[in-house]
Design a protein that fits this description.
Number of strands: 2
InterPro entries: DUF3278 (IPR021697)
Number of helices: 6
Helix content: over 70%
Shape: flat
Protein name: DUF3278 domain-containing protein
Order of helices and strands: HHHHEHHE
Keywords: Membrane, Transmembrane, Transmembrane helix
Oligomer: single chain
Largest sheet: 2 strands, parallel
Strand order of the largest sheet: 1-2
Number of domains: 2
Strand content: under 5%
C-alpha cells in the first residue's frame, strides 16, 4: 500500500532494487503519511479560511509553505539521485514506457487542473467575495497553468528514459 502511495504521489515506478533502496532512504512510510496529512490539513484550512473567514490566516500560510518546501526538497533529492530514470531494453519497451509517461502526464494534468481551478476560485472568493472571477480570467489562468505544467513534465519525464540498446 505504501509503495503504491509513493508511486502515485511522486510518479516513480519501483522496478529497480537500487531505486527502491534509495527511495526508502528518502521516503520513509511515515514521511509520506505526514506529507499527505499536512496536505489535507492545508486544504482544510484553506477551505475554512475561504468560506468562513474570507481571509487567509497565518497558520494556513505556514502550512502552505511547509508543504511546498517539503515537496520541493523531496523532488530535488529524487532528481539528484536519478530515481526518475527508467531504462528501456528495446524499441518495444521504449514505446510502452512512453505510453505510460503520456498517461501519467495526462492524469497529473487533470488532477492539477482541478486543484489549480479550486485554488484560483477559492483565492478570489476569499479575497473579494463580491466579485467572482470572470470566465475569461479563469480560462486563461487554467490554460497557462495546465499548459506549462503539462509540457514541462512531459519533456522532463521523456528525457529520463535511458535507451540501453544505443551506444552512448
Amino acid at each position: 500500500m505504501m509503495e503504491r502511495l509513493i508511486r502515485w504521489t511522486f510518479g516513480v515506478s519501483g522496478r529497480d532494487e537500487y531505486q527502491k533502496a534509495e527511495m526508502n532512504k528518502i521516503l520513509s512510510g511515515s514521511a509520506v503519511l505526514v506529507y499527505w496529512l499536512l496536505y489535507v490539513g492545508m486544504f482544510a484550512s484553506l477551505i475554512i479560511d475561504g468560506f468562513w473567514m474570507h481571509s487567509v490566516t497565518a497558520g494556513t500560510i505556514i502550512l502552505v509553505i511547509i508543504v511546498i518546501v517539503w515537496g520541493i526538497t523531496i523532488g530535488i533529492q529524487m532528481r539528484k539521485r536519478g530515481l526518475y530514470q527508467v531504462e528501456a531494453a528495446n524499441e518495444e519497451d521504449l514505446h510502452r514506457i512512453y505510453r505510460r509517461i503520456n498517461f501519467q502526464v495526462l492524469r497529473d494534468s487533470i488532477i492539477y487542473s482541478i486543484n489549480g481551478y479550486a485554488g484560483w476560485s477559492l483565492g478570489y472568493f476569499a479575497m473579494s467575495p463580491k466579485e467572482p472571477p470572470t470566465i475569461w480570467e479563469t480560462v486563461s489562468f487554467m490554460v497557462v497553468f495546465v499548459g506549462v505544467y503539462t509540457i514541462d513534465t512531459w519533456r522532463y519525464r521523456r528525457q529520463q528514459v535511458v535507451k540501453a540498446w544505443e551506444d552512448n
